[in-house]
Specification:
- With 200 residues, the chain is mainly alpha-helical.
- Helix content is 78%, strand content 3%.
- The protein has 3 helices and 2 strands.
- It starts with 7 loop residues before the first helix and ends with a helix.
Amino acid sequence: MPTFFLDPRVWVVVALSLLLGLAGGGGVGYWRGDVAGTNAERVVWQAKEAARQTAQAAAVAKRVKENSAIQAAHDAQNLKDSQTHEQSDHAVVAERDRLRADVRRAGGLRIPAPSPACGVGPAPAGQARADGGPGEAAAGTVALPDSIASDLLDLVAEADAVVEQARAQQKRLIEDDAEAAAGARAAAMDTGGAQHETEN
């Protein structure tokens, strides 16, 4: 038998070689397992991230579609409001013109005549006024000057226009509040659904 097998140095070298081989094999195996595990975990994470991004893109596309529908509804409402406002303006102008015609037919705007005690009112029945005032004083009224009557009718028309604008704004605010409440409910439902999905 060869003598080198009996030499303890040979056995030490063989033992060390085996030990290093086992340790190296174990290290390589551990490293490969760690890399494989990391890769498997990364694949799972990437799949979840891709699903999250797809869901987010779908939610954005849905919101864009909803916003487009809301904008179209606002545009239609604005057109309707503009037409209604225009009709209201025409109605106010027509009413002003009708009032002016009525005032002209009636001989002008009239107010009650002042008291006869002041010397300018109608005289008691059967008596003539000392200054021989106009016949309308006998009827108990006095006509306003045309410029004052015109100014008063203009103020009435302006007040009517302001009232119409206020009515239109009030209607629009009520509709906007109802729309905002509906949007808040829808957003709350969307948020609740999104929270449920993230919890799973």
